[in-house]
Amino acid sequence: MEITYNYFDNSDAHLPPGFRFHPTDEELITYYLLKKVLDCNFTGRAIAEVDLNKCEPWELPAKAKMGEKEWYFFSLRDRKYPTGLRTNRATEAGYWKATGKDREIYSSKTCALVGMKKTLVFYRGRAPKGEKSNWVMHEYRLEGKFAYQYLSRSSKVFYIYHIHAHSYFIRHFSSV
Amino acid sequence: MEITYNYFDNSDAHLPPGFRFHPTDEELITYYLLKKVLDCNFTGRAIAEVDLNKCEPWELPAKAKMGEKEWYFFSLRDRKYPTGLRTNRATEAGYWKATGKDREIYSSKTCALVGMKKTLVFYRGRAPKGEKSNWVMHEYRLEGKFAYQYLSRSSKVFYIYHIHAHSYFIRHFSSV
Lengths: 176, 176
Known about the structure:
2 copies of one chain form a homodimer.
Chain A: E1 19-21, H1 25-38, E2 48-49, H2 60-63, E3 70-76, E4 94-106, E5 113-124, E6 131-142, H3 144-150, E7 158-165, H4 166-174
Parallel strand pairs in A: 2-3
Antiparallel strand pairs in A: 3-7, 4-5, 5-6, 6-7
Protein name (chains A, B): Protein CUP-SHAPED COTYLEDON 2
Organism (chains A, B): Citrus sinensis
């Protein structure tokens, strides 16, 4: 049996057993999303870039960089109408619909508001007659101080999406 | 702002933001504990070796290799009496007491029983008058096929311990 080996090699696929990408909300906002908004060429080991309007949820796991039952993506915000503020969250097969209230994310160091987290559920079909699925995602956006300092009208507005199928998620975390 | 960097360097302290040691029960048994039982010199980036009878729970975080609110350790089983099977789980300040039923850990590949998980709570003082604390740990041991194949009477019997203070743990995972 091999006992010694290189714990963290440079391949994207390999992490030592037990090591996972399990970021806090704050890490997603203050590290990954901020880096991406400041430089759209930023790429990391954990979060792939996709166009969420062109991908059905069940196609996303294959596009992710890592993750067994939950996956993280960057996606550019697509406005529903060119001059409006509403975000287009439709795909060919259905649409993502917000559920619950948006949650505020604060910096643990400065206590400043740095981002917001919205929960969305995927419905197959077209609103308002869509059929609810078990695909759920959290959408993270810059807000407060960070949005004010780093987003301008001309910025490409990236969001981070944390996606999972609901039954998987429950099973995964209930073993903790 | 630095955009590209080496994600996994060789220092023990550094992991990129969001990456954590969050192993499943099966990974702890079939990977880390098995390696340690087969070679007592095995050492890894995530799990330090301690003598649990010589450490109070509140001293353990400083002895861990990584972890913010939960920590993993190898420890040799200390028999209560030289010829008996009971395990000594006393420290100078108190003792670890089992709670609930032991849980069986199965291989997801072969479905064979590979280990057991016991939950223990730390009490200050001496039994039966100890005062319950919020320190909790899970004890992992080889069992079934693995114990039969790899443990002999002369083996040094290592266990893995997963330790946390209860209020920390709840807070940590409720944010998921």
